[in-house]
Amino acid sequence: MSIDENHPSSSDPSRKRSSSALQLGPRKKAQVTSSNPLVLHGRHFGRTVFSLCNYPALLTAGILRLEELQDSCIEDYPADVRREHRVFMNLIDSYPGLLDRLTTGEEEDVIHIGDLLSKGASGARGDDTKTLKSAVLEWLVPRGQVVIPPLSRNIKSDRGFNHEVTGALLCPAGLDWSDTATKLSLKSGETVVRGDQWPMFLYSGYEYDPEDPWKGLLRGEILIFGFKHVFTSPSSVDREPKATRSGNAYLHGMKSVTKGSLAYIATQVRFALSSSSVFSRTDTVTDSENFYHSILDLLEDPDESEEVVDLMTWWTRRIFPNSSSSQRDVSKNSALSKIREKRAALQARANVNTT
User: Fold this and answer.
1) How far is it between the farthest Cα atoms of the chain?
2) pLDDT digit string, tens, across residues 135-157
3) Would you say 268 and 132 are in contact if contact means Cβ atoms under 8 Å apart?
4) What is the distance between the alpha carbons of residues 245 and 108, in angstroms, rounded to a whole number?
5) CA–CA separation, 182 and 172 (whole Å)
6) d(CA 199, CA 60)
7) What share of the chain is helix, strand, coil (3-state, %, to 5)?
8) Is the pTM of this model over 0.90?
9) Which of 106, 110, 266, 276 is most buried when burial is the number of CB atoms within 10 A of its CB?
10) How far is residue 60's CA from residue 128's CA, in Å, rounded to a whole number?
């Protein structure tokens, strides 16, 4: 996304987050090449784990918290701090030797490492925004059909609620885009759409069931196209799922879809469909940061784990069908199913005997 990161946070208290590390920080120009290992790692980490992040603040707070946790438990902290710590630990675990560099270095070293990671994450975000800006226009209508009236590849002012097709895709679930009054209210800005009011394009078939809001959620076709475009290569969008050697997934050994990557693509596609040209926290048109957080809130909610596991399995099978993470259901009455049934029965008996 084109980033305007120097704007202050919105004054709307419901959109503030006390954990400042998991918000975009000020833009800085690090004097390093894009081939720096930490920059490269930042690119992938931002796409797959957490994108909208102030990395210097994340590292600084994470190191201090590790010291605090010697005498306390992470469960004693607020939910937003626990999420921040999970992101920090994921970052530490994903880059060998990083923790030693952080704990043995000076404060300036920690800030420098954070700046390198930020450079990678923001660079990837900007690159993806630029390519999706035009690519998304190919996915708005079935192949062979044309968008009427046509949309510009370089200018976004005619997108969003200013166009019949993009407006229908961005219309919040629960509102009726075909209703003239609703359409005019969205177009004029009288109806302000918050980031946690999810658009129709997130749903399979672009259909929303208010009685079953999980039905088809985050399975929209345009999301699949966006994911393939970013992770398996633009040329793979119209082909069978396969991570090409030039794709980001292949280059980083990615073999399953992550919660962070799904939230990232949803945010990128939503921004590409919008009429906004600049990403910032004060952008009331897209409210992208709130949208991104709201998707992650759902995917990380323990109470929604059953639906989330099913969703992530569906995605991994769709994008990485040959991956070991994309295991198929065991055939009924097969030898393997019988072995597992017997093992489950023995385990259940053992549990009864120990209670």
Assistant:
1) 71
2) 999 999 988 899 999 999 999 99
3) yes
4) 37
5) 11
6) 36
7) 55, 0, 40
8) no
9) 266
10) 28
